[in-house]
């Protein structure tokens, strides 16, 4: 397949100021994350709790519904980042996928097959069998290492606490954090894909689990920066917390403003969106941004001779929104009579680099 190089002319006040009023030409890549909401095949797996997602289960999940779901998701993934970038995302972090097979079916859909996505996936210890994964365009990104890093947490009798050395019978089985390192057009990039523990049992009671996830994320980033002070790290996922929660603000240490990000720190462009009332998920008519993409300080420098963060967004096109009924205005998810998309909106950021370097 012929490799196409995508570039854009970017006109916006901040960058124009930085570049002293000159118009520059840039290479652009889209980095996306999407919680695919229960992307299960129809085959019963005796090792996980997937009974409802079978033809005889409560969802009456048939092959026809499954392939409709794949077609729906492929449309979304092919359009994230347009019109600024005519190419579909170079990277797609995924959550709530049952196994590698559903991803292989997804990337073969007509709207995606010509992009030639590669897959990086590990089975997680989650009892429902839902995992995280990374899709990447093989013509642009060459992975050199990848690993699934477990989040080891246990229930403890004391409320609002997590004990990592408690009785192993009390372990909370949740998703691993996926770390991928490779080269984007020859430049090293590190990506972490997350799906942090849910709010089951209540937000406050379950918060320590997500704080532990944020601390693990920070530990992974620290280890990468110890190897390379200038390591470029992108961490993304469904965090089951907003940008303002302790797991993100304290455990991970993410900052809302670029000027406040210290060396080796983390910038979160989605906190400002949350303050404006934007959201990726709705509950009881209240919106929150559980789906976030954050970058290390090395990606927000003003020198665009290598890949840097440009801007972020929530992909919430009209066809992804419920238009009637009790959940009008919410993300269009599954119903008994309709195969939707997801109960989350996807999110994305752009990486850009001045051409000629």
Keywords:
357 residues, seven-stranded mixed sheet, 6 helices
Brief account:
This protein is an alpha+beta fold and 357 residues long. The chain is built from six helices and 16 strands.
Shape descriptor: globular
Helix share of residues? Answer: 10-25%
Q: What is the N-to-C succession of helices and strands? A: EHEHEHEEEEEHEHEEHEEEEE
Mean pLDDT: 91
> How does the major sheet shape up?
7 strands, mixed
Strand content: 25-35%
Can you give a write-up of this model?
The chain has 357 residues and is α+β, with helices and mostly antiparallel strands. The protein contains six helices and 16 strands. It has helices at 13-18, 63-79, 100-107, 203-227, 246-252, 270-275, and strands at residues 7-9, 25-39, 91-97, 117-121, 131-137, 141-149, 177-184, 187-195, 233-238, 254-255, 266-267, 281-283, 286-288, 291-296, 308-314, 347-354. Strands 1, 2, 3, 4, 5, 15 and 16 form a seven-stranded mixed beta sheet that branches. Strands 6-7-8-9-14-11-10 form a seven-stranded mixed beta sheet. It is globular. The protein starts with 6 loop residues before the first strand and ends with a strand.
